[in-house]
Amino acid sequence: MPQLILLRHGQSQWNLENRFTGWWDVDVTDKGVQEAREAGRLMKEKGIHPELCFTSLQTRAIKTLNLALEEMDRLWLPVEKNYRLNERHYGGLTGLNKQETREKHGDEQVHIWRRSFDTPPPPMAADSEYQMTTDPRYAGIEVPATESLKDTIARVLPYWKSRIAPELQNGKRVLISAHGNSLRALVKHLSGISDDEITGLEIPTGQPIIYELDDSLKEIERYYLSEK
Ligand SMILES: O=C(O)[C@@H](CO)OP(=O)(O)O
């Protein structure tokens, strides 16, 4: 029976500072390191043994994966990294404080930017200090100027279908370390959650989510490992 483990990165510096992050590459905090290690210890203790890993091109997800794997004595596992698992691009909001943005634009507008399904935040200015277009890790990739959750799903799912799903169908146990919104995309797809409902689903940092799947990769069971 295919098994998939989803892990959102441990607390990042900008989670702590309450800033819109998106594609900006912030590190995990000391608490984030602890959360990642704890996730690894929990997986080991509960007998979760991934054989193959996928992550984004962002430090917070890569580091979380490595810290968890270290705790599991599985740093040797193959890991594939791809920008398609990156966080949703936050456009012109990147770097701003979420509370200050609420005070300036109102709760309702900020809620729409954060949690509507298909309304993207305003685009990032070409000369923004947070531009990632010249970052070497994105060479050959068209870095978006902003993304809605719908846009994020549209970039995550082709990668799921072409690279991750075939491994699961070949019987591999797969661990994905990624981000709040790229993981929402996967949960929406796997659990058949509607456009309206998915925006209300919050994925906590450092909490392994286990999917037991049938051979066609439909959900049999989904649970937080800490609750088993
Ligand atoms: O800032 C971000 O990139 C994301 C995840 O931390 O925030 P939000 O909760 O608004 O999707």
UniProtKB/TrEMBL annotation:
Catalytic activity from the UniProt record: (2R)-2-phosphoglycerate = (2R)-3-phosphoglycerate
Any one GO MF annotation of this record: phosphoglycerate mutase activity
InterPro entries the record matches: His_Pase_superF_clade-1, His_PPase_superfam, PG/BPGM_mutase_AS, Phosphogly_mut1
Pathway: Carbohydrate degradation; glycolysis; pyruvate from D-glyceraldehyde 3-phosphate: step 3/5
Domain of life: Bacteria
Keyword tags: Gluconeogenesis, Glycolysis, Isomerase
EC primary class: isomerase
Site (Transition state stabilizer): 179
Binding of substrate, residues: 8-15, 21-22, 60, 87-90, 98, 114-115, 180-181
Catalytic residues (UniProt): 9, 87
Xref: Pfam families: His_Phos_1 (PF00300)
Listed PANTHER family: PHOSPHOGLYCERATE MUTASE
Subunit organization: Homodimer.
Family per similarity comment: Belongs to the phosphoglycerate mutase family. BPG-dependent PGAM subfamily.
Physiological role: Catalyzes the interconversion of 2-phosphoglycerate and 3-phosphoglycerate.
HAMAP family: PGAM_GpmA
Protein name: 2,3-bisphosphoglycerate-dependent phosphoglycerate mutase
Species assigned in the record: Parasphingorhabdus marina DSM 22363
